[in-house]
Protein 1
Amino acid sequence: MISRSGLSKLRSGLYPPECLLFNNIVGSSRILVSGTRFTSAATESDSTNTDVNPSKTSEAVNASELESKLLEKDKIIEEKDKLLKEIQDKYKRSLAENENVLQRGRKMTEEAKLFGIQRFSKDLLEVADVLEKATESVPKEELEKNIHLKNLFEGLTLTDLQLKKVFSKNGLEKVDPVGEKFDPHLHEAVFQLDVPDKEEGTVALVQTIGYKLNGRTLRPALVGVVKRKS
């Protein structure tokens, strides 16, 4: 393009026509260069925008996947913690059960030591009853008259005494509850009688001596209990 000053100078003959043609070419080149720069900048801008959008989308996808994986891991950890707690509870219960079994075993062992001779001791009670009745049935006056009877009586008395020592050594004790309050755990009432000078509900007479083995009733005493007549 030719400026107004150029036209005036051309008309006045100051510039030759070749100069005007050169100026037109240069001006056109500048316009083309400017247009090219604008187009290049726009292209770069579009390219930049095109590159940014996929990157942001990829980051969003990665963040979503990461969050999903974290939630999945949290769920797995929660399940593992729950399973661990259940295992610990079962382990504690198992320990408690084992301790109870050990305690019961120790108790049974102790009871076996204490009451292992229970059946044997109960059988010996009949022997003790026979010896006691035998010594009580001998008349005292006959002992002085008959030396053989006296020797037999002394032998029975010593045997009865030795048997009672063995009973005491092994935790076997006699229950002779005359005058005591009737106890159904230690006594067995076989009859009732009215005794004016005794309290009602007490033992007035012992028919058969009872025995305890280490505090446990081995044989209840057979007794007669006082009861007032209505």
Protein 2
Amino acid sequence: MFWCFVGLEAFAHLASEFRHPQRDFPRALLLGLLLAGAVYWACSVAVLHFHAFGDGRAAAASLPGIVVQLFGRHALWVACVIGYLACFASLNVYIQSFARLVWSQAQRRPQSRLAQLSARQAPLNALTAVMLCCLLCSLLIYLSGLSLDALIVYANGVFIMIYLLCMLAGCRLLRGPARLMARMGSVLCLLLLAMVGVRSLYALGMLLLLYLLLPRRAVPHGG
């Protein structure tokens, strides 16, 4: 359930891609939520209906097993193509949004190459930097031999930490019922972080590292 809705904060960085963001951005966000919920609901119903779960079965093999039951082994390639396209779409959104985030943060130094746009108003330099970082991280993961299960848990911790910081910011900036919802979200994020266990220390360590390395803004007196 968590991975169906995780990453909504990345979608916000693509707001500049919309021609009419005030109108189209909320529509796209709500449509994405409904679509993710519908896909998760349909997959859950299929897994429960075909009993494709249990201690002796790998979670990753549930949906391929259902495809084999319904259409035979010759249809597995269709499931592989659909899975590849779904993963590619997610990676595309993450990488593009992260490139936009890098570009927006680089606006503090307009002379930086990361702050430049191409002729088609795309942050190509920032996108290239993000892609190089992804390639480097992929190489390090391959050489270190980390398992996919461990990487997913580490990523979960980072996502939960991001949402926790957002909720804490809401507790400070919002008023009325919105502040109450932010407080409830903070409690839920803390519970999720506790469920991740010891591996949540990775997210805490990354937060501490960024706090020490990133420059701090000067707060004006009386502001």
Protein 3
Amino acid sequence: MKTYGLIGFPLEHSASADYFNAKFKAEGLNAEYKPFAIESLKDLSDILKQNPSLRGFNVTSPHKENILNHLSYIDPEAKLIGAVNVVKIKRGFLGRKEFWGYNTDYLAFEETIRNLDLPPFQKALILGSGGASKAVERSFKRLGIACDVVSRTPQGAQKSYHDITPEVLTSYTIIVNATPLGMQPYIDKAPEIPYHALSDNQLCYDLIYNPEKTEFLKQAEARGARIKNGLEMLILQANEAWEIWRRS
């Protein structure tokens, strides 16, 4: 039996195992998908030793950026983004294991934005500056949508949360939560922005899908904003990951 999995921490919120195991069963595949909750990538070697049938794995927070240091090959788009969410395990010279990294987050997010059929001249604000944020930023660039990134520790052109005044917030038509605030163990939290300034002219998109409606989305909906969670993105990026794993 071939094994696939997910590394990250925490993983209680993740639906990846349920999704893939249902997919494998429906397609009659002799495969399984397992969650590997690891706080440090130092524990990755133990996962590999304990699971010799592992053929690939997804990567989620907080490892999407640091995993790059553990890879044999990084897809050019993933290297440009600076984050990887899919790893394929291949056999190289003399059967030695190689770890190839890819990013399917940006493709999935980009498709979900296209599916929304938004009017032209959009401007986006991304809350958070981690691996997921970098993929979203790449998607917006490919779509020709101007965007800014907000970080607790801003670098370069990034903004701080103190910069996001009500007047500034109203200048954006898309606001994306790419932070872990809203999922376990931060389920009652949301990024600190002036929610009272939101309106029905804006789309608030949370990459989190569990819970279905985060505090960020509840606050946005209460102000009349259009809302969307990350479930569609999860499914799209998972399907892209499977296409990578199944290729020889």
